[in-house]
Amino acid sequence: MAQAAISAGLEIRPMRSRDAEQVLAVYQAGLDTGQASFETTAPSWEAFDASKLAHPRYVAVEVETGRIAGWVAASPVSARPVYAGVVEHSIYIHPAWRGHGIGHALLSAFIAASEEAGIWTIQSGIFPENIPSLALHQSFGFRIVGTRERVGRHHSVWRDVLMIERRSSVTGL
User: Fold this and answer.
1) Is residue 122 classed as helix, strand or coil in its secondary structure?
2) Where along the chain do its domains lie?
């Protein structure tokens, strides 16, 4: 995918290894909200990189400064060939950029690239309290397929997770 302008001074481009420090900082900022994941600490770049597919993964970047405003990436759900077209994705937006359309632009680019790559199902888990993320995903056709009740403890509190998925209408039919 070519670099795409998304709003004044921002562009979407593929994630690079030299983005590591900023990507992990955005990730940590999301974890610090307590609404993004059961994780509390971002992993090393090596662990992050090894757990994600090489493509598609994107960053939203301030053109003038090179600062990363957000990122999206996916992990395979299984090594079995039958699940080659199913991924679990994550999307994180820097706190200063939330509410500016970054999530929409990143998810749009990610979905288009995933379909070009033959991915037919994108899934994820979202805490029910993370209303902005749920609304973003539903605007792209993600649907809630179930609730895992009290599936894990986060900061000593049992949390539910909404399981969401999006099925492609152009690949995997």
Assistant:
1) strand
2) 4-123
- Condensed to tens digits (0 to 9), the pLDDT of residues 76-130 reads 999 999 999 999 999 999 998 988 899 999 999 999 999 999 999 999 999 999 9
User: Rounded to 10 degrees, what is the CA torsion of 100, 61, 65, 99?
Assistant: 10
8 Å CB contact between 50 and 6: no
4-123 fold: Aminopeptidase (3.40.630)
38-57: pLDDT as tens digits: 898 999 999 999 999 999 99
**Which segments within 112-171 are labelled E, that is strand?**
121-126, 143-154, 157-167
Predicted structure pTM score: 0.91
